[in-house]
Amino acid sequence: MIWHVLHIIDILLWVIMAASVMYAAFFAFVSLFSHPNNSKRTSPSSTSAGKSSLSGGFREASFLVLYPAYHEDKVIIHSVQQFLQSDYPKDKYHLAVISDHMEDTTNAQLGSFPITLLQPTFEKSSKAKALQYAIDFFDSRDEKTFDYVVILDADNVVRPDFLTQLNASCEQGHRAIQCHRCAKNSDNDIAVLDGVSEEINNTLFRRAHNVIGMSSALIGSGMCFDFKWFKEHVTLLSSAVEDRELEALLMKEKVYVKFENDIPVFDEKVSNSDNFQRQRLRWMTGQVQTLLLMLPYIPKAIVTGNINYIDKTIQQALIPRSMLLVITLAMAILLSACVSVWCFKWWLLFGLLCLSLFVAMPSALRRRSVFSRLTYLPRLVWRMITNLFKINHKNKEFIHTTHNK
Known about the structure:
It is a single chain. Helices cover 51% and strands 11% of the residues. The chain is an alpha/beta fold. Strands 3-2-1-4-6-5-7 form a seven-stranded mixed sheet, with helices on both faces. The longest helix has 29 residues, at 2-30. Residues 39-56 have low confidence and may be disordered.
């Protein structure tokens, strides 16, 4: 009797794990194909600054660039300085920093730049509140009109042609764009693994989805939206995972999200286990919150054939890949030692997962030095497992991760 119960538990656990593995495997396979619209577009980025609209034939849209910055004194100055080196016409973009609980010296230095410095005082800070504050500020000034809004994190650094490239994408009619966020540091094992994980996410949840005509997932920064749409919807954001809320709103209205693989946004990866745990706790909490938020609309999405909404809801129920790797391997080894006849399906699942992640990993990262860092993975997975007991789906407070430099 006991073995029968254990066998049922084994099969149920395998089915749960297999659902997440199959999802990753499908989109990893899809990523091997090219999107028909991904042929190299004519872009004004190759021309000299100030001549882009003439040589490329592109209208120069106006951009509001927002940097929400909560306790980001260590990184915000450098990010703003780098952005101000943009080759885009100065009268076609405006940069604003929403300074939340930053030091007076930092604010004084920011105030010397040709930007708008906003200094709200929130009882409980969140990125959503910062974005709402900024949009309300600019919306109340009729002289400030923009075509698009760009959202960057305080540590994000972009190239001088960032807006020029983004403008070319906007000219194709996209109302929501996710740029290619990638690592700007690889100074230790955690940062390398975090960077690899992000690139796999870019493949599975962004590039591969666009390949088959589905919307890219958002990632929280490096995002660009039609200004009017964003202004009308930003007031609806209420959680600490505003990017997932924005995704749900976009999918409800069937607004396509374009992933721009060739427009990089360099992001600082977490470099210590405490920051890793806090970051993953924020993500895991947001995943549960978003799943609960999106589920009630599922019946209507099914009736109306809203595939993107259904897909985004499924994404919220997926098990994190690092946990999948460790759990499937542990189960395969355990059952090999205890009940060998039950282990084959686990080895098959583990092998399929490894193959899928290898395919989804950019070829430039398939190096021995990267795979050698996997020995650190079990410790990080343990941190994630302990997070399971800390998830509070009602929590709306922002869980901040600090930067080392």
